[in-house]
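note to self: dont lose this again. the chain is below, predicted strucutre after it. 424 aa total, dont forget to put it in the shared folder this time
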Amino acid sequence: MADQLSQDLASLKIDRDPPARGRGRPRSYGWIVTLLVIVAIVGIAVFVVYPRIAARLTTPEVRVGEVVLTSPAQASVQLTATGYVIAETFAKVAAKVPGRIAEIFVEEGKHVDKDQPVARLEDVDFKSALAASRAKAAAARAKIAIAKGQLGEVKLSIDRETPLVEKGVTAKATLDDLAARATSLQANVRSAEAEALAADADVQALQTQLGSYVITSPIAGTVVEKLVRVGEGVSPGFGTPGVLEVVDMNSLLVEVDVPESRLSQIREKLPCEIVLDAYPSTRLGASVKEIGRRINRSKATVPVKVQFDDAPDKRLIKAGADEGKPMTILPEMAARVSFLSEKLDPKSLEVPPKLVVPKPAIVQRNGHDVVFVFDEGTVRQISVELGPEWAGGRELKTNIPDKTKVVLDPPGDLVDGAKVKEKK
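---
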C-alpha cells in the first residue's frame, strides 16, 4: 500500500521542461483584436453618431428672418450696399534718410499743417561733420585773403619799379621777375577761390542733408497713428515704412462694393443716403463721386466712392442724448449706402431710420408682444414695443440691433432658452 502511494505521488510532479518546438497549437490573439474593433465601433456610434441623429430627430427647425434698419426714403431706394469710410487724402510720413528717432513733436489726434516738422532723427554725428566742413570753408576763404594780399604787395612793387626802369635806374630784369611773381599769385588766388567754392558747396550739401533729419508732413491733416517710438530706427528703403500716419479728415468718403449685375443703376452724381453703424439714427445726404474702373473678379463687384454732401462741421447727430453734437467720423467706420432715384428734401433727412421687424416674427405671450431672437441655436424671448406698419413689417421701438436674427412663425410651444436649428 505504501509503495502504491509513493508511485502516485511521484506521478504528480510538475514538468518544468518547455515543450518541444512544433508540438501543440500556437496561441492566437485575433479574437482580442476583433473584440477591440467592435468596442471602438460601438463607442463611435454611441458618442458621435447617435447624438447627431437624436439632435436631428428631436431639435425643431425654424425659419429665421432679420430686424432691418430701414430708411424713411425706402420708396426711392434703388440699391443698398455696405462699405467703409476711407480717406481720399492721407500720407504715411516717412524719413528721407535712415536713422534713429530722437524726437516726435506731435501727438495722435492733433492737427498738423503742410510742411510742419513732426519728428527729428538723431543728428549729432552729422552736425559734427557739418561743423568740420564749415571750418574747411573758412580756411579756404582765409587762403583767398592771403593770396590776394600777396598779390597786392607784388603789384605795389611793380608800380614802384616801373618808373625806375623807365629812367634806367633799375634793371628791367627786376620788373620782369615781379611781373612773373604777380602772374603766379593771381593763379594762387583763383585756386583759393575755387577751393572756397568747393568747400561752400560741401557745406551747402551737408546743410541740405541735415534738413532731411527733420521729418515734415507732406499734407495738412490729423495724426491718426504713431508708427514708431523714440529710439527706434527708420529707413526709407526697408524696415519701418513710416513715422506717422496723417489723414485729411475733410477728404473722408465712403467706398462700397456694388454687384456687377447692378452697375447699370449707378451713375456719377447719383443722390445717395449714408447711415453709419456708429450713428444708426442719423441719415446723411451724399452723392456718387467716382465709379471704379476695375472689377473684383472673385466677388463680381465694382468699387464705388460716395462723398458726403455736407461739410464736416455740418454733420450733426440727430437723435439720442448727443443730439445736435458734431459727428466724429473716422476712417474704417462701417457704413450703409442707399442709392436713390431722386434727391431727398433736406428736411426729410431729419427723420431717423426705423427698425423694422418682420410681421411673422411677432407673437403674443401672456398678453404681450414678443419676438424670439435666434442666437447660435438657442432662442431668447424678448418683449417688444411696436409701432405702425412699415416697409412690409412693424416698426420696432424696442432697441434691438440691426440684422438681429428672429424666429418667423414661432411654434406655440416654443419657450425662452429652447434649442432650435435654422431651416435651410
